[in-house]
Amino acid sequence: MRLFFVFLLAFISVTTFAQKNFQGKAKYMSKTTMDMSRFGKMSEQQKKQRLARFKSFLEKTYTLTFNKTASSFKEDVKLDAPGASGPSWGKSNGQGSIYKNTKDKKMIEDVEQFSKRFLVTEDMEPSQWEMGTETKKIGQYTCYKAILVKEDKNIDWGSIFSRNNKKKDSTKTKENTPDKKMLTVTAWYTPQIPVSTGPDTYYGLPGLILELNAGRTVMLCTEVAISTKEALEIEAPSKGKEVSRDEYNKIVKVKTAELKARFQSRGNRRGRNN
Q1: How far is CA 23 from CA 11, 27, 88, 225, 233, in A?
Q2: Using one digit for the tens of pLDDT, what is the confidence trace for 135-167?
Q3: 253: enclosing H helix or E strand
């Protein structure tokens, strides 16, 4: 009965905004926890120093600009404090974005890595969300829970600096390929904002996603502003080399392997010098 109410509320919301130039912006705060064990044994002080160094990578804010069919998700760029340090690959250059169009069923991630710009293009397949009846309030909005289990194709950037590098098992063959890494995603969406989009690459629910829990990352909407005045600019990115998600991941895998080897070589030289 409650699930029926969810779709009824979504229908009412869509009907309410059908005659309007419905659009808006949503602000999100993102926080990622780090597996400190991958860096080997460290004191509490060393852990604090490591977390402080990676803060710009672990804590970010974003803006999602949306209308009825299209959206653009972009990191809010912050100037580093004097003396701040951290991994350059964790920082935004102010140009990257994730564009989604539910009408054309296309998603384009505009990203720069290794001094090259890519347009990672994917078809927006129907997401297999498991709709729940649990609710909670986020701000003034009533949100409903949904769960998605999907293959995790995210790049594990932290592994570049990991000291726990296990040797490959030479007995494994091509036939004994590892199982796919799966990711459980929990979303809280509100039919009161009738757009089928959300933060990052997520979409496919009957309302805007206001909270997202995916692995070690939590994204929470902190502000929503609905506008019916001048049309907000939402354009698909067009500058960069167009690649599929799999092609992009292969490129990153090769480049990060080279980067990791460089770090390990540098560490070995330091060890010999000491």
Answers
A1: 17, 14, 34, 9, 10
A2: 999 999 999 999 999 988 766 655 555 555 554
A3: helix 245-273
pTM for this model (two decimals)? 0.76
| Three-state SS letters, 111-123 | EEECCEEEEEEEE
- The helix/strand/coil state of 9 is helix
d(CA 207, CA 134): 15
Q: Is 65 helix (H, G, I), strand (E, B) or coil?
A: strand
d(CA 119, CA 241): 6
**Strand extents, DSSP E, 79-140:** 97-101, 106-113, 116-123, 130-138
Secondary structure (3-state) at 20? coil
The structure tokens listed for 150 are 């999907």
Rounded CA separation 85/167 (Å)? 31
In this structure, the dihedral spanned by the alpha carbons of residues 254, 260, 264 and 266, taken in order and rounded to 10 degrees, is 100
Distance CA 223, CA 65 (A): 12
Non-local (6+) Cβ contacts of 65 within 8 A are: 23, 24, 25, 71, 72, 74, 232, 233, 234
Cβ neighbourhood burial of 86 (10 Å; 0-12, 13-18, 19+): middle
